[in-house]
Design goal:
alpha/beta; four-stranded mixed β-sheet; 6 helices; 38% helix; 26% strand
Length: 247
């Protein structure tokens, strides 16, 4: 009897139900792969002849890992709506968002008295308005991150600088807070404007240290800790802060 290429099932592990999707493929010969997508859906990709019983056994075997991934998904903040009364982060603080709709060409963000004031076009529908305000916030964070990155490199340069001061680029890296290229160019993500200044300092120190030690050997970490004794703790705090960012 032919097996369905896509089917659904559920098993229980430690009192929790784990629904999963089985995807069979005639092109997949031996390997079995489990993924948890952005919506928290568990998918197991298997060779076409794999039985439901075998798929279930693999899911059960990987259940501890699956539950960890699901917990990460559930702990992530809901996507920002950029609505009046919501809060947005800046320098590690949650600041209230005040939105004023009117005859504006595009959304604009200002910071006044530690509040975000947003002027937004009133002719847009809800989805268009959200996207327009989102773009405005990205522009605003990008500019603040650039300012702080240049100032931070200047501040830490006497302790870690080598040769001529490097080129500094603020970009849209999603998986890295910063990087140091072979030519010494330092790159930072604009999302650093959202976290505490002490955490941005850690990223700057980390990348400046790569001008001396290119890898993450013990020599590298010794150099980082010489300049910033609590660097490892700041690294942990940065990882935790990254999980709660709305953008």
């Amino acid at each position: 009897m032919p097996r369905p290429e896509i089917s659904e099932a559920t098993l229980r592990y430690q009192g929790r139900a784990i629904p999963y999707v089985i995807r069979r493929s005639k092109r997949r010969r031996k390997t079995i792969q489990i993924t948890v997508d952005a919506e928290g859906r568990v998918v197991i990709a298997v060779p076409y002849r794999t039985t439901d019983k075998r798929a279930k056994a693999v899911i059960l075997e990987r259940a501890p890992w699956i539950l960890k991934q699901l917990a990460k998904q559930e702990s992530r903040p809901a996507p920002a709506r950029f609505a009046h009364g919501e809060t947005m982060p800046y320098l590690g603080r949650s600041l209230p968002l005040i939105v004023e709709e009117g005859d504006y060409e595009e959304a604009d963000v200002r910071l006044e008295d530690w509040r975000f004031l947003v002027e937004a076009p009133s002719m847009l529908n809800a989805d268009e308005l959200r996207e327009d305000v989102r773009r405005a916030f990205v522009r605003w964070y990008w500019a603040r991150a650039a300012e702080r990155a240049h100032a931070g490199v200047d501040r830490w340069w006497p302790a870690l600088g080598r040769g001529d001061k490097p080129r500094i680029i603020v970009g849209d890296q999603r998986s890295l807070w910063g990087s140091c290229a072979a030519d010494g160019t330092l790159r930072f993500t604009w999302r650093l404007a959202m976290v505490r200044p002490s955490l941005m300092d850690y990223v700057i120190v980390h990348e400046l240290a790569h001008l001396t030690v290119r890898n993450h050997s013990s020599d590298f970490w010794d150099l980082v800790r010489q300049v910033m004794p609590d660097a490892i703790d700041r690294r942990r705090q940065l990882r935790e802060a990254g999980r709660s960012l709305p953008l």
